[in-house]
Structure formats: C-alpha cells, structure tokens
Amino acid sequence: MARGQLRIYLGAAPGVGKTYAMLSEARRRMERGTDVVVGYVETHGRARTAALLDGLEILPRATRTHRGAEFTELDVEAVLRRAPDVVLVDELAHTNVPGGKHAKRWRDVEEILDAGIDVISTVNVQHLESVNDVVENITGVPQRETVPDEVVRSAGQVELIDMAPEALRRRMAHGNIYTPEKVDAALSNYFRIGNLTALRELALLWLAGKVDDQLDRYRSDHGIGGTWEARERIVVALTGGPEGETLLRRATRIAARSKGADLLAVHVTRGDALRGARPRDLARQREIVEGLGGTFHQVVGDDIPRALLEFAGAVNATQLVLGVSRRGRLAQLLRPGIGVTTTARSGGIDVHMVTHDQAHRGVARPVRDQGLSLNRRLGGFLLAAGGLPLLTFGLVNARPTLSLPSDILFFLAAVVGIALVGGMWPALFTAVAGFLLLNWYFTPPINRFTVAEQENLVALAVFVLVGIGVSVVVDDAARRSREAAKLGGEAVLLSALAGNVLRGERALDTLLGRMRETFGLTSVTLLERPVPATPDSHDDPADWRIVATVGGRPCTAPGEGDTEIPAGDGLTLAIRGRPLPAGDRRVLEAFAVQAAGALRQQRLEAEAERARPLEAADRMRTALLNAVSHDLRTPLASAKAAVDSLGTTSVDWTPDERAELLDTARQSLDRLDRLVANLLDMSRLQAGVLGIAARPLALDEIVPRALDDVGEGERVSVRLDPELPEVAADPALLERVLVNLIGNAVRHSPPGEPVLLTAGAIQDRVELRIADRGPGVRPADRERIFQPFQRLDDRDNHTGVGLGLALARGLTEAMGGELVPEDTPGGGLTMIVALPVHRRTA
C-alpha cells in the first residue's frame, strides 16, 4: 500500500488563518468529489472558521479522563475504520492526553499516513524543534509542544499562511483570535510588533530552506547539472594568500546588490596532504567570511578549476569570484592559469576576475627539500669514489670474456646502487664518471676519449641518460617518502592536539604544554598587545601582557624569544629554548591558531559565567511579572468586587449573601497575603538574607497547625511515631514548608484518595513523608518542578505562580534539611522532608 501524502499549512503565529485555509482546501476537494473527513479541527470559537465545517463529515473524537477532567483527542482508530481519501488533523505539534497510543499527535498522523490516507494539518513555526529555543529567546515564552523538523520537511507540500504583523494585531484587537478579556495581555506580550516580525522572518527562512532542499533534490533526481538562478549565490575562491581580503570585500559588494544573496567562500586543498595555505591565514579569512554573514568551506582536489566548478555547481552558485593570477606574465603565456581555465569551463556561472595588489608579482616557490640527509649524500660520493676504480679494475681484467654492453650494464648497476645510497648528486657524478671510464677503458679505440663506432656512442649516451633518470627518480622518491613521513607525523600531532583540547579542562594550558613537550622548548608564552602597535612595541615589555605561559622563565615581549608566531589580532606566541627550523612553522601556526581559539573560548566562558547570574535574575523578574500580573490581579479583583458589592446601597443584601461576600473577600485577601509572603520569602532566600531562628521542635506540635492552615485537613491521614525525636528547625518556616507540600498533594490527589503524612527517624535525621495518589512526576521533570514560577503541565495560570515547591525546598535547605521527591508505591508522588535531629548539649 502506498503511503499517504502530508500537506501542512505553516504559520508564524496563532490567528494567521491556518485552520481557515485548511478547511477551505477541504471544501474545494470535496466539491471535486474527494472523500474528505474531519478528524480533529479546533476552531477556537472563531465564527468564520466554524462556518466552514458545515457540510463536512466530522468523525467522533476519543474521550480521555486526566486529573478528574475529560478531554477529547483525535480518534486514530475511527479514522482507520472510515478510511477516507483525506483527513483533516489540526495542530500537528499537540501533546496528547496520557492514556492514548501515542504521546504526540504527529505520531498519530504518521500511523494514518502509513495506512495510505492523505492528511492535511497545521503547525506554527514556534513548534518546530530547530527554532524552539530561538522563539523562546524572542518572545520569552517557552514552547513545550514541539514537532521534529524532519516530520514537516518530509511533507509533500508545505504552504506558508502569511499575514503582516499589523494586520494580525488588528485581527486580535477586533476579537477575531482571542476572547476580549485576553486581548490586552496578548497585544502587550506575545503579539508585539517586534515578536511577530521576528516570527514571520523565522517562518519565511525555514520555508526557504525547505524550498532549497526540494530544488536540490529535483535537480539531482533529474540529472540537471546547470545552474538555476532561483537565488543569487556568490562563491569566492580563496587561496589563503594576502589577496583574500580584497576578494571577500568585492564578493560582499556583489552579494549586497541582490537582496537575500548567499555568500560562500571556498578553499581548495591539494591532494598532496598539508602543503598549501598557512592555517593562520585561512583562520583569519574564515573569521572575515563569517563576520560578513557568509559560510566558509574547504574541498580537496588536485585539479583546482574542476574542484571549484564542482563545488559551485553543487551549491547552485550563480557567480564565482576569483583573483587575478599572481604568476608572472611569461608563466601565463607558457601555461594558462587557474582563472583562465575556470572561466573557460564555467558554463552558465558568471566569473568575476578581481585585480589585487599581489597580481603578476609571481608566486613564492617553496625551498625544495633535499630528501636525503647530508651523511647519506657524503656516503654516496665516497662509495662512488671507491667503488668505480674497483669496478673498472675488475672489468678490465675480465675484458676477454665481457663485451661493451655487459660493461655498460655493470656501470649502470653501480649508478642505481649509489643513487639508492646517496641520492641524485652522487648518482649523477657516478653516471658522468662511468661514461668517461667506459669511453677510456672499454670503447674502441682503447685508452682514448674517442669512439670509433656510432653504435657505441649511442650506447654510452643512453647509459648517461638512464643514469640521470634513475638518479632523479630515486632522489624524488626519497624526498617524497620523507615528506610523507613528516606530514604523517604532523597529522598525528595535530590530531592528538585536537583530541587533547576537546578532552582537556583547561584548553589553553594544554595547548601550550603540548607545544613545549613536542618541540623540546624551555618556555612557551602567549602574549597580547592591549594597545595599538608602535614602531618600538615589538621589544617593549610595557606594551605586552602575558596571557598564558608554561615552562621556565616566560618572555615578556616577542623580541625576547628565539621564535615568534603571530596568533591573531594582537596575539603572539613567543618561544624560548632554541630556534626552530622554518619547516616546523606550519605546525607552529596550527598551534598558534588553536591557542587563539582556546583563549577566545576561555574568555567567552568567563563572560557567560559572569552573565549567568544576571540572566537568572532577569529570567526571574520576567517570570515574576508574567505570573504575578495574573495572580495578584485575581484576588485583588475578587476582594474589590466583594467590598464594592457590600458598599452599594442599591441592593438589599440578605445576611447570608452578605456573609458570602465577606467570606469571598476574606479568602481573596488571605490568598493575596500568602502570595506576598511567598514572594518575600523567595526574594530573601535568593538574596541570602532570610533569618533562621532554629530551635528544638516536635513534629506533633507543628503538623496540626499546618493542617489547619491548609483548610482541608480531613483529606490528610496523619501517622506520626510518638517516639520521634525533636528536630532543629524554625517553627514558622517549617509550617510554611508543610503548608505548601500538603496543599500541593491535596490539589493533585483524586477525590476520595487521602494524602498520607508519616514520619520516622533514620540515624541523625527525621524524615517527614507526604504521599499523594496523583499522576506523579516523570524522573526527567523532578528537578524542573522546583524551579520558581514553574507549574508542570499547567497551562491556565489559575493555580498560583508556581512558587510553592521552589519555596519549600529553599526553606528546607535554609534550615539545614533536604527536600527530595520519589514515586509513591502504586502511583503518585511522595515528598520527603529530611531534617536534622536536635542534639542536646551538656
């Protein structure tokens, strides 16, 4: 059976018209003869949306009971039994009431799709998993209901239902989204112009990313290699050379001319390992690219034009920016450069050749490594000097039995052997000397530097050419072998370096220590210049500050070290111990780049640590204002309404009605008093100024007072051991703890199920256990319920600001105790208050 198709209407915020668009599409399909049913649609009381349901078949919903209340959910089994062509399922990210087959509605939809039924659904951008935290930072409202991005991306069609922020606020003000009593709060909080604009941009960008994926998939499926200019994408090719910044600035200006253009920088690393651009220069150019809002990429390829064009084609680039060749004009005449070759092969991609200061100045050639050590080369010369006379003497004595070709082969073997020992120059010396010896001793006329027969002349020439060729090949092989071994060692070193940084607790010290150990140095110092450079600042310790150092006496200025490596803006590594060869600078620069990155990370972590208390305080203030705005206003409004009613002269209240109004006012003011007390205690706890007056206290003295304060003592079963020792606690604070915990347990226990309060002594503490038979709390959420202003699974804001458990734990810990939750056997949650036993002093 073919899987059903999923169509999703995506919105930036509630009220943009997703459900309306979904129902309109359903009616269009029904008019065309498609079998469409409504599985679950939430109209939110909007009349125009509800009107679209007329004439559509609505399947019955499944009813579930949770915490004494009834809820309706999508009935997946009813949908599967009905088996329509299309089913409408609103609010894809919805969390189902416990008790169903799936915890999330999107999993219900997956089951329906697997049955071959098409589904039309809706979702808001704030419910997408990848942007959930971004939305919380923008709006200050956490979104606990999320749907994985892959579910939405896998949809056959995703249509954005867009509306300007101003138009959406007008809809809100006209009462077309929320009920009138919620309009003012919504407009001043979630539905601010800035919030809506940011959410709208998020939705557009997310959908643009999905469209890009669809376009890439279509081009891949249909084998389309050409560029489709759906959006301007500018690729700038970087060599790591000094002209890179000029190219990036030019590419940025090109990208700025097209709104929404993408900037991508790419560096092609040759396939012969680590040779090429210096890591420090590439790291600097990467920072520039990312600072300009672009992305940096590296690809590997020996054919640079081909690698560039393959990358540009893969990202659907429209323009490619290259620098004018640094090679001299004669070199360009002999062989076309990368720019010319790339332009000739570019096809539909526009290529910009940008001039720069380094153009036509020539490319610095690296010094060719000799490959073999000096001792081996000297050994080759000594072997040639001693071996050739011996070989000549032996061949002269064997002249009657050997011909000239045999003599040439013996000398050729000598050339190969000496090339293997000493490399190219001893082998060249052997080839030339062998030519002369063959000519004098073995080529007629003997003992003369002339050759009588042309054939012998050709043989000697071939001997010399073969000798030279063999010597060059052997030397090149030795050099490459040595390079490969060195680069392999560097790769192992850099790999170990990266691993140590990832595992190390202090990355900067780890890096410098590793560098000192690797190169056998006395000290390694990272210096920073906090002031702009001056001509004399290089050697002046007053202009430099030591950031980190390992080993012996540190350098106080770069000039004091044997070697210095720039590590970034204002940063330099000064090395003391011995001068290091130029060949090691590549690894040293990699260390320097890593050290600069580690320093930045260390400073960012320090900044984050300093900002964390401010963030927590700001989050606390925000949560306090959001929560208290309702919980202060509700009891105040109730008390004021009761008092105003009692004070009116136009109504003759009966004694019972007057008593009821007085009781309402009293309860509201008591609630307000408890709320203010909790807030003050929480603020004193967080400020560390809460006064504790601990004294010996018997639990049977404090528990009855707490039950009286809760007001529902008949729902609590108390079992206290009469032999319990006294605890050391503050009576008022312990009563507040018990009131909050007992009230919370009573509130979550089902009707008819009593809360059990027991206590017992365990070693040097007394444990007071308050057990309910409610729904319990998942282990993953047990720490979250103790956060201030946190009400787990509570969405209506009618049960308090969520300070009870946070305050109870804070007060318990302030008295030297501990408050921990655990499961109640048989279901429910048990709060354990552990207090220290009072120790009497003699």
Automatic annotation (TrEMBL):
It is found in: Cell membrane; Membrane. It is a multi-pass membrane protein. InterPro entries: HATPase_C_sf, HATPase_dom, His_kinase_dom, HisK_dim/P_dom, HisK_dim/P_sf, Histidine_kinase_KdpD, KdpD_sf, KdpD_TM. GO terms for molecular function: ATP binding; phosphorelay sensor kinase activity. Its EC number is 2.7.13.3. Keywords: ATP-binding, Kinase, Membrane, Nucleotide-binding, Phosphoprotein, Transferase, Transmembrane, Transmembrane helix, Two-component regulatory system. Pfam families: DUF4118 (PF13493), HATPase_c (PF02518), HisKA (PF00512), KdpD (PF02702), Usp (PF00582). Residues 627-839 form the Histidine kinase domain. This is histidine kinase.
